[in-house]
Amino acid sequence: MSTLDKNNNLVPIIGLEVHVELGTKTKMFCGCLADHFNKEPNTQVCPVCLGLPGALPVPNEQALLYAIKVGLALNCRVNNYSYFERKNYFYPDLPKGYQISQYKKPLCVNGFLEVADYETGELFKVRVNRAHQEEDTAKLVHFPEKTLIDFNRSGVPLLEIVTEPDFSSPDQVVSYLKELQLIIRSIGVSSADMEKGSMRLEANISLGASLKSGAARDRSNLPDYRVEIKNINSFRFVKKALDYEIDRQKELLASGQEVTQETRGYNEKTGQTFAQRGKEEAHDYRYFPEPDIPPLFFSQERVEEIKNSLPELPAQKRLRYQKDYDLDFKQSSVLTQNPLWGDFFSQLIAQKVEPREAAKIVINRPEVTSSDPIRIAEQVRKKKNDLISDRDVLTRYIHDAIKDLPKVVQDYQAGKESALQALIGHVMGKTKGKADPRVIVEVLKEVLGAGH
After folding, report:
1. Name one GO biological process term (predicted).
2. C-alpha 44 chain-centroid distance
3. 102 forms bridges with which residues in the sheet?
């Protein structure tokens, strides 16, 4: 529990635990099919994922390789020696009474991700504490008078990615989650679909004093409590849940009350968080090494081989678009969000379409990505050939615009750059949209700069 001095400058302190279902064909420790979405309940189960006595787990190698790929994409160090542990707790969705997970020796540790704010493009750094392999639980289906359990999800490979408490706003959290989802999809290890539950998150949040610029959060400057919000399943609800919880904690602390360390859920209908249970600590789970699974060893050569197999990551692609094609941050971000859009953009470039024009086509008309890029490129060239680009002809239209819009001219000459758009629009209207905008801008600036 905690109370804080009202004079403190309180800021949100947020850390994340993101769970990603890895897209393997079979489950983590048995041969049952892993794709459980919309399947008949309890039809993809066996003694291993039902936790029956005597059933022995065998690790899924593909899941381990996928986990390492994610860790490397997040700049983590891969532990050459790792092992599984039993995480002991009782809950109806856990058939064995424990979860096979990792604690002391996770697969990947000490990473980071530089995230660009999706609105401003400004970079901020998030430290990744660990990425460890575990198995998913069964799914509880609640009815008014009873709760049923579907074990199809039990044992599905799950990667938990744990950050340090480096977020200071819900917007930063959303930007990180979007970037993480892009990375996971780009390396092909999961659909990371939040609506289907293949990417879920838990946020740990408290309020504390702000730090000096450049200082990092550690145990010495963290509040003595934290509240966990579990299983949020959309970017929109992440922001709403965190906004609500920040306001709730501020009100408690401002009135001199304590904030209880606890686990809370989020009600999507009311937009409020609600208490579920007390918050557990690591020692509550009584971790100990899984006796039925031998330790894992990965040579440095194998790790390098996996690293070299990584495709171009979203941040690298954005930078390439900006550097090679002179696109701005928002254009490069939109093209990176969907592989089809990026591929179609590249195909238009290959057809000699000017990069900014190609970007504009894909962003404004994403439906064209299902068309033939050669045909679209031909349409662009035909339209360009139809444009009026004769400077003498356009100069006459420009002089008419200057005569018709004297106030706009005054605004531009007074330093209002946006006034130029009104003059361009006037010329485009008179030419029925057939004037070359680039030539209009060139001639306008020459004429207005000459004092006409």
Report:
1. translation
2. 30
3. none
Residue 87 tokens read as 């995480």
- ∠ at Cα 335 (332, 340), nearest 5°? 160
pTM of the complete model? 0.82
pLDDT tens, 386-434? 666 677 778 888 888 888 998 888 888 888 888 888 888 888 888 877 7
Q: Give the residue carrying structure tokens 């602390």.
A: 253
How far apart CA 273 and CA 265 sit, in angstroms, is 5
Tell me if 332 sits within 8 A of 131, measured CB to CB.
no
Query: Of all residues in the chain, what percent are helix, strand and coil, respectively (each to 5)?
Result: 40, 25, 40
Angstrom distance (rounded) from CA 166 to CA 173 = 9
With tokens 């928002």, the residue in question is 330
- How far apart CA 218 and CA 308 sit, in angstroms, is 33
| Domain residue ranges of the chain, discontinuous segments joined by + | 10-307, 312-386, 391-449
Q: Return d(Cα 37, Cα 191) in angstroms, integer.
A: 12
- Check if the beta carbon of residue 291 is closer than 8 Å to that of residue 259: no
**Residue 355: other Cβ atoms inside 10 A:** 16
Q: What is the largest CA-CA distance in the chain?
A: 91
Q: Are 423 and 408 in contact (CB under 8 A)?
A: yes
